[in-house]
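Pasting as-is:
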Amino acid sequence: MSETKTVVHDWRDIFRAFKMAFDPKKMFLGYVGLLASLIWCVVAVAFFSALKLVSTNPYAFIKLVLYSAREGIPLAIKNALLAIMPLDFGEFVVLSVLVFGLLVIWSFVAGAITRVASLDYARDESVSLADALKFARKKFWSYFWSPLVPVIGVLFFALCNVVGGMIGRIPVLGEIAVALGFPLAILSGFLMVFVGVIGALGLCLMFPTISTEGSDAFDAMSRAYSYVLSRPKQFIWYCIVNTLYGLICLIIIAFVAWLMMRLSFCTVGLGMGQKFTAVQSFILQKCDIVCLGFCSTPSAEIKTTAVSLDRWSLKFLAGMLILYVGLVKLAVWTFVTTYLLSAKTIIYFLLRKEIDSTEITDVYLEEKAEISKKETGKLSSPTEGAKEERSSAEEGYKPKEGEDI
């Protein structure tokens, strides 16, 4: 007798996101997406650094993965603050190219992950990886434009204020026009805050909307804004549960990854002896990557004593160890990605059920859509029906012997 799942369809369903995040298809997509994003950022920044458009070191993105959480989080915050500072033309071009590439990557990856999550949660069905990618490819532009719609809205109202400021350059009349029309600038500022803040909050619901409804970017935006504004308390409560539970799960996953790597280093070190200790000290003086963010700060001896490796084979070993630790840390961040996308998909279903009174099992299926199109096509083609009736009549009528046809 098969085991029946207990689904309550309330905030407790968010706890299912932990198990859903470990779906092999989601993990594979998330890992490929993060790896592709890392490669894209490194290659793009290296290219523009060679052109002297930016002075950023492309290896800074690799350090975000290799560093411990204690070192990586302040570095990420610092880079984020630098990114929102006033940019010159070259830096703006580089940032635009990076964002464009990341949107292309995650329009496929996140679209496919949320498609798998929507069918898994709503109908308990497992969609193949090929079908998920096929769906993401068909809805690529919807995924691509949905997070940009709030940005375009903010830029539009900002441009209106800029145009109004340009009118103010006209002597006398322009100054009077700005003085009288400045309330419109204030209104535009309010709309920038409204569109930007609500858009940022509802951004997590846009991809699940497209994956569930098979709709476009406009529908994703309208539903995101509507759900956030219609049920702000429920939305905030779901986000709090999602965040706290996600942090607990992340600590557990990161601890397991740390323990796994720590045991590997200790046991191999026991067998290899001083050579492995020298390699590990060489790695630790570069960055504290072995601990995965849980171990203590490297000792003062390691920091002050320069450790050098005399053979190329030891340097090769050190490089491969760094690569392995980086891949393991990337797997931890992959869980974070798949968990967030799965949890946000569940939150979308719960909000849709409360606001639109739509059944949880109601998901857009391409097979049913294609069948309905074929049936509609048959009903809407009278010429084909007439041909079939005429042919059947001709087959049914047999002239008698000697009768003229």
